[in-house]
Amino acid sequence: xxxxxxxxxxxxxxxxxxxxxxxxxxxxxxxxxxxxxxxxxxxxxxxxxxxxxxxxxxxxxxxxxxxxxxxxxxxxxxxxxxxxxxxxxxxxxxxxxxxxxxxxxxxxxxxxxxxxxxxxxxxxxxxxxxxxxxxxxxxxxxxxxxxxxxxxxxxxxxxxxxxxxxxxxxxxxxxxxxxxxxxxxxxxxxxxxxxxxxxxxxxxxxxxxxxxxxxxxxxxxxxxxxxxxxxxxxxxxxxxxxxxxxxxxxxxxxxxxxxxxxxxxxxxxxxxxxxxxxxxxxxxxxxxxxxxxxxxxxxxxxxxxxxxxxxxxxxxxxxxxxxxxxxxxxxxxxxxxxxxxxxxx
Amino acid sequence: xxxxxxxxxxxxxxxxxxxxxxxxxxxxxxxxxxxxxxxxxxxxxxxxxxxxxxxxxxxxxxxxxxxxxxxxxxxxxxxxxxxxxxxxxxxxxxxxxxxxxxxxxxxxxxxxxxxxxxxxxxxxxxxxxxxxxxxxxxxxxxxxxxxxxxxxxxxxxxxxxxxxxxxxxxxxxxxxxxxxxxxxxxxxxxxxxxxxxxxxxxxxxxxxxxxxxxxxxxxxxxxxxxxxxxxxxxxxxxxxxxxxxxxxxxxxxxxxxxxxxxxxxxxxxxxxxxxxxxxxxxxxxxxxxxxxxxx
Amino acid sequence: xxxxxxxxxxxxxxxxxxxxxxxxxxxxxxxxxxxxxxxxxxxxxxxxxxxxxxxxxxxxxxxxxxxxxxxxxxxxxxxxxxxxxxxxxxxxxxxxxxxxxxxxxxxxxxxxxxxxxxxxxxxxxxxxxxxxxxxxxxxxxxxxxxxxxxxxxxxxxxxxxxxxxxxxxxxxxxxxxxxxxxxxxxxxxxxxxxxxxxxxxxxxxxxxxxxxxxxxxxxxxxxxxxxxxxxxxxxxxxxxxxxxxxxxxxxxxxxxxxxxxxxxxxxxxxxxxxxxx
Lengths: 345, 295, 277
Fold this sequence. Notes:
Chain A is an alpha/beta fold. Chain A has helices spanning about 50-55, 95-110, 135-145, 150-160, 170-175, 180-195, 210-230, 240-245, 265-270, 275-280, 310, 315-325, and strands spanning about 5-20, 20-35, 40, 65-75, 80-85, 120, 200-205, 230-235, 250-255, 255-265, 330-335, 335-340. The two termini of chain C are about 15 Å apart.
C-alpha cells in the first residue's frame, strides 16, 4: 500500500540568534507531500519558504535554526521520525553544545535520504555547480549514487532528457559550469539532480535569473520529467500564477506562517474563500503595505493584519483579536484550510 | 571594536576594548617624559653592580641590569624607539599604499597596469632580506631609515586592498547613480568607497603594520646588535644582551637541577623587555584582527 | 601554440630582467651611499658582472673569508637551498595544520581544548621567533638546529607571517565549505569533501605560492643565531668580509628564484583553475 505521505512537517518554528536576541523567522510552517504529487510553496521574499525546505533537508545555515516542530519521512519501509523538538531550548535557554550535537546527529541521519530519497535544486543553478568539475563528472557522481556505473551513454541520455539537443550534449558534457549560460546551467542541475533517482525533488525557485519565456519553458519541462519518472516534488516560487499548471497542492506562506493550504485550483480561483494575502497574490487586491513593515515573525497575532483589507473593515474587538491572537486553521473543505479569523463561523 | 561608526549596542564592550590602547599611549607618554622624571641620568657611565644591587627597589622598580642601567628606563626607551619606528613605518605604509592604491584602482588609466606590476614585484621581495641589504648598504644600524623602508615595501599590501575595493565598487550601481546625481568621482571614491566601505580594512592594516614594524625593529636590533645610544635603546638589543640569562632561566625552569648551579641575578632585565615587546605586538595584532572581524 | 610560446618568452625575460634590475638597484644604492665596501671594491663593473652571471653563471670568486680560489656560486646555491627548504617545510606544515584545524573546528566549534590551542598559537606568534626557538630547544633538548626540520617547526608556530597565513587560509577554506556548491553537494547527497578537494587544493597552492617570500623573511633570526648556512648567514659573512660581488650575487639569486617561483605558479594556476584555462 502506498504511504499517505512521504514528507510530513508540522509546526516548524525557526529562529536566528542575533546580538540583540532571538528573532523568529518561521513561526508555524507545515507541509505534507503525498507520493507522486507536486506541491507548491508560494510567498514573497522573506516568507520562510526556503527556510522550510532547508529544515526538511537538515541544511539550516544559522543558529539555532530549528526550535521546534516535527519532521516525519516515509521512504522505503517504515516511518522515520527525523527530528522533533530539540532539548536545546529547555528552560527557554539556548544550549549551544546540545544543539550542535543534535545537529551533528541530524546531519548523519539525513545523509541516508539526501540524494537517494530527496534531492534539491537550489536557486542559483550556476553557483550550485562545482566550478572545478566538468558537467559529465558531476552527472557521473549522481549516477554512482543511484547505483549505476559510470556510463557515458547514460550520462548523455540524461542531458538529452533535460532539454539539451542531441548535437550539443557531447559539448555540454565536456564544459565547466562557467562556460554555460543561465538556462543551460539550470538544465544541467536538473540532469544532475534527476539522475540521482531520488524519489522527491525539491526545486527552490528553479527559474530565478531566467527570462520570462525561459521560466515557463523550464517549468513545463521540469513537470514533464517529474511525471515521466513518477517523482514527487516541492516547487517554491514567489509567483502564484507560475505554479498553477505545475502543482496539485499549494501552500501559501506569509512572514513565516502558512496562511493557506489547498488544491492549487482552489488557491487560484476560490476568490472570497481565500486568505486575503492569497487574493493579493492572485491580483484581486492591491498591495497596501507601506515601508518599514516588521520583517520578522515576532508578531503574536496574524502577521498580515496591517495590510489586510478585511481587517480595516472590522470592529475594534475583532481587530484586537487579529492583532493579538494567532488565527487557527479553519477548514473550508477537508483539503483546504485558511488561517484567518474572518473565516471563523 | 568599531571606529567612528556603528553606535549600536556593545558600546560598553567597545569602551572596554579601548583600555589597552589608552594604557599603551599613556606608557608612550611616560617614556618620552622619562628623562625628566628619571632619577638616573642616561649619560651616567656604566657600572658593574653587585648582585644585591641589581634587585628591584623603590628607586629602581625593575632593578638594574649587568651594566648598572635602570631596567625600567631600558624598557621605556624601548617603548619610545619602537613607537617612533612603528609610527614611521605605518605613516609611510599609509601614504605610499593610499597613493599607489588610488592610482592602480582606476584600471583604465595609462600606467595603472605597469604600476600594478611594480607593486606586485615589490610585494614579492622578502622584507627582511631587503632590510638586511639596506643595512649592509648603510653600513650601520639606523632603525628609523630601515623602518621607513619597511613601510614602503609593505605599501603594496594596502594598495592591493584599495585597488580591489575601488575597482569593485566603481562597477557597482551605486557609483553610477552617485555620478548621475552630480557627485564628483573624487567625492564618491574618497567618501563613499574609501571612507565608508574601506576604512575598517585600512585601520586593520595600519594596526597590523604597526605591530609588525615593532616586531621587525626588535628582530633587526636583536640580530644586528643595533642601538641608537642611551635613551633610544631597542628591546631587541636589550634582549640580546641578556639572552644568556634567559636561557639559564628556561633551562632551570624545565630541569629541576641545573648543571651550572647559576641563576640570573635579576630575571627582570630580560623578562621585562620581552613581556613589553610581546604585549605590544599582541595588542596591535588583536586590534587588527578585531577590526577585520568588524569590517 | 603561439600563445604558449609568447608566454614562455615573457616568463624567460621576466626571470632575467627582474634579478638583473635588483642587482643594479643594490649596486646603485651602494654607490649613492658610498662607504667602505665601495672604496675597497676592485671587481668588474656591474655590467661586466651581469654579463658574467647571465653568460656563464659566474658569480665571481668567493671573498676572503673562504679558501681563496673558490667560486662563490656553490655557496650561494647552498644558501638558497637551505633557506628555501626551511621556508617550504614551514609553510607546508602550516598549510596542513590549517586544513586539519579547520576541519576540527568545523566539527567541534565548542570544544574548550580547541579554543585553548587557538589562543596559544596566537600568543606564540607574537613572540620574537628566537625566543620561541630557545624555549622549544631548551625544553625538548633537541639537536635542534643541525637539521632543517626544527627551524621549520619553530617558524610554523612563531612566525607572525605564518600566523597571518594560517588565519587567512582557514578563512578561505571555511568559505569554500560554506559556498553554494558545497551546500548543494551536501543537499544532493554527493560527497562533500570530494567536491571540495580541488578548490581547497588550489587555494593552498596559491597561498603557498604568494606567501613564500614573507616566510623567507622570517628565517633571518633562526639562521643568524643558530648558524644555519642560509642566505642570511651568507649575507652576514659577505658583509663582514666586505665582499660586494657576493652580496650582488646573492641578491641576484634570491630575486631569480622568487621570480621563477611566482612565474611557475602563474602557469600552474592557469592549469589547475578551469576558470582561468
